[in-house]
Structure to design on (691 residues):
């Protein structure tokens, strides 16, 4: 009985909790398309409705279903809710699962580290760029070689800082690492963006494919196999044919001891040496060499001339060569170049530094006898030319980033080679500096990272990034970061970033930081070294306030007037205010960063401390002024005191002067003065008495 009651309770509760049903329960809709979903109620209710950020349906009583309908759905992350209100019971709710999708604007594939051609055996990175696709979590990037699926990628990179759980469109990139062989020359690589949105989505899953990328693969020559020895009767004729494969198409030539009766013809990758009226002078080794800028391959045919007592009728024998061939890998080191050349070739100039797209011209001079000389290069190669002592390799507009032109001369039994060192450079498209962790003002004493971004510069291994504060060099950087997964040995242009850590002070407010991209290309390059400067970054530094005037005392007579001035510096400019005991005769005025308190008709009520406080969001500073008010009696007493002191000083001065006068008198003895009176002589003594 208990089990039956529990079962009935479970069924009733389940029915109540599931009183709403959506048709369909899950929606997959293309952005901008219409959508319509019905909500049906299976229980009594006081009203039902749809809560949604667009085209919601208000609470509606007396209906058994309601439709949520949008003519053009343009909200990416939406979770509409159907509800029904039951009297005295919990509200029924059912949330609709909505997936809004958008095919990408474009899908494209490119080679990250090769703009022109690839070299057999080297690694290259292909990049698939998918613009504005949603939702990215349902995306699979598929890589194709021709019609064959070679890789499926869900470890792609979302750009613009979006995470792979975003509902809105994001841009995505995926990379594929390949190592092409000669069999891949002309192969087509493409990528597809596939949105698998489940059974409710498009079937088969929506897939947008890129335009195929056709790759060109360069590889060293290989001479096709053939006969390694041939016999011809004396006086007969024999043809030695040599054919080679390579890209770019190799130059094929023969080297031998010339007896004057050998004729060589060449066409494409084939070369034929025809010996007529063969004699013993024609016996020996005939070397066929195929050369392009990546290397060479050599095959040998040994010719034997048989002698007969009677001259046989002319016979023609054809030998197709190369079984025992020697393949020469590309010459890469200076020692290899020197060994190959043996000093018989000289380049003028021996090293070239040229701006991408500019012309270039180099002479190759031979200092020994030869049967022909030429230039093997991926662009504007010079075919083998006999009877000359020099040849010029000339390009009107050099647009290949990594090339190693080879000058060669054929000597009997040996070939001279000299490889030209070419550096192709390009100034950056743009150099800019920004603050990585602050778009607002900086705070004094905190650390910040400045970032210098250098767009499309080559060759990056010759780059020095210089940081300046104003006109002062503060840092040189060669530990920069190359972007897009490229290494710092790239010959083609790359993007580079460098960082500088600073701790600004208030003295740095308004300072200008800039960075320079400087290419040091040696004595053959531009002098002084090519440098491109960024627009300066002007930094604003915020710091707490500092009041210019410190603590002091001020005395004002009773009834007098005094001004107390307070000035502070800070960034942002601080608010300055005075705190004091207001006696009603104090007025505060402001001008700029100064705040002045004026006391008029001062009285004892104005005595005390006046505090000035300067405040901004970083802190505050306070200075105090003590005001003393003196009364009139005190002033009179002070004046009397001063007068008494002055009188005393005057008396002392006069006394000193009188003392000095008494000590300065001297008395002299006067001679008698004789006068005559009535003929009698009289004399007056010095004291005037008559004698």
């Amino acid at each position: 009985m208990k089990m039956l009651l529990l079962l009935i309770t479970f069924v009733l509760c389940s029915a109540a909790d599931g009183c709403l049903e959506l048709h369909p329960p899950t929606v997959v809709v293309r952005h901008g398309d219409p959508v319509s979903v019905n909500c049906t109620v299976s229980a009594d209710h006081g009203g039902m409705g749809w809560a949604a950020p667009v085209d919601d349906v208000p609470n509606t009583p007396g209906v058994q279903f309601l439709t949520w309908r949008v003519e053009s759905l343009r909200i990416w992350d939406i979770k509409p809710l159907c509800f029904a209100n039951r009297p005295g019971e919990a509200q029924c709710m059912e949330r609709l699962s909505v997936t809004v999708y958008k095919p990408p604007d474009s899908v494209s594939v490119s080679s990250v580290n090769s703009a022109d051609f690839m070299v057999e055996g080297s690694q290259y990175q292909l990049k698939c760029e998918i613009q504005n696709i949603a939702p990215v979590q349902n995306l699979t990037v598929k890589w194709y070689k021709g019609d064959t699926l070679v890789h499926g990628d869900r470890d792609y990179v979302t750009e613009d800082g979006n995470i792979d759980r975003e509902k809105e469109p994001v841009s995505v990139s995926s990379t594929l690492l390949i190592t092409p062989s000669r069999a891949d020359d002309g192969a087509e690589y493409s990528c597809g963006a596939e949105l698998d949105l489940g059974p409710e989505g498009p079937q088969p899953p929506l897939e947008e494919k890129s335009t195929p990328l056709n790759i060109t693969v360069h590889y060293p020559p290989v001479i096709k196999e053939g006969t390694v020895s041939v016999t011809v009767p004396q006086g007969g004729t024999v043809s030695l044919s040599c054919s080679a494969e390579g890209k770019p198409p190799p130059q094929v030539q023969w080297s031998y001891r010339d007896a004057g009766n050998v004729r060589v013809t060449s066409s494409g990758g084939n070369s034929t040496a025809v010996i007529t009226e063969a004699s013993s002078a024609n016996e020996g080794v005939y070397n066929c060499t195929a050369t392009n800028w990546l290397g060479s391959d050599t095959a040998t045919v040994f010719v034997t001339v048989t002698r007969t007592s009677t001259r046989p009728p002319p016979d023609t024998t054809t030998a197709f060569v190369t079984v025992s061939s020697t393949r020469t890998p590309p010459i890469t080191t200076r020692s290899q170049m020197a060994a190959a050349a043996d000093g018989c070739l000289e380049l003028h100039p021996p090293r070239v530094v040229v701006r991408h797209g500019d012309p270039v011209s180099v002479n190759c001079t031979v200092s020994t006898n030869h049967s022909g000389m030429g230039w093997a290069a991926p662009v504007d190669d010079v075919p083998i030319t006999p009877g000359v002592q020099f040849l010029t390799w000339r390009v009107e507009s050099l647009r290949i980033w990594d090339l190693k032109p080879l000058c060669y001369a054929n000597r009997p039994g040996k070939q001279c080679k000299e490889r030209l060192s070419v550096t192709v450079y390009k100034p950056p498209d743009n150099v800019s500096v920004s603050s990585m962790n602050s778009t607002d003002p900086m705070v004094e004493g905190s650390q910040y990272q400045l970032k210098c971004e250098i767009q499309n510069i080559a060759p990056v291994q010759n780059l020095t990034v210089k940081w300046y504060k104003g006109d002062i060099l503060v840092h040189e950087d060669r530990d920069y970061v190359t972007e897009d997964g490229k290494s710092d040995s790239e010959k083609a242009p790359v993007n580079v970033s460098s960082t500088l850590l600073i701790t600004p002070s208030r003295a740095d407010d308004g300072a200008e930081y800039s960075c320079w991209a400087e290419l040091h290309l040696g004595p053959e390059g531009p002098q002084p070294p090519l440098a491109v400067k960024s627009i300066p970054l002007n930094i604003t530094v915020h710091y707490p306030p500092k009041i210019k005037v410190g603590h002091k005392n001020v005395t004002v007579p009773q009834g007098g007037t005094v001004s107390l001035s307070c000035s502070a510096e800070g960034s942002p400019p601080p608010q300055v205010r005075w705190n004091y005991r207001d006696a009603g005769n104090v007025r505060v005025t402001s001008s700029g960063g100064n705040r002045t308190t004026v006391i008029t008709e001062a009285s004892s009520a104005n005595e005390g401390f006046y505090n000035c406080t300067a405040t901004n969001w970083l802190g505050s500073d306070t200075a105090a002024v003590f005001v003393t008010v003196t009364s009139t009696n005190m002033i009179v007493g002070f004046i009397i005191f001063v007068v008494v002191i002055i009188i005393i000083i005057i008396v002392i001065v006069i006394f000193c002067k009188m003392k000095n006068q008494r000590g300065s008198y001297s008395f002299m003895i006067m001679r008698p003065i004789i006068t005559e009176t009535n003929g009698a002589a009289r004399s007056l003594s010095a004291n005037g008495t008559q004698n």
Q: What stands out?
A: The chain has six domains: 2-101, 106-215, 232-242+249-329, 331-424, 426-539, 544-630.
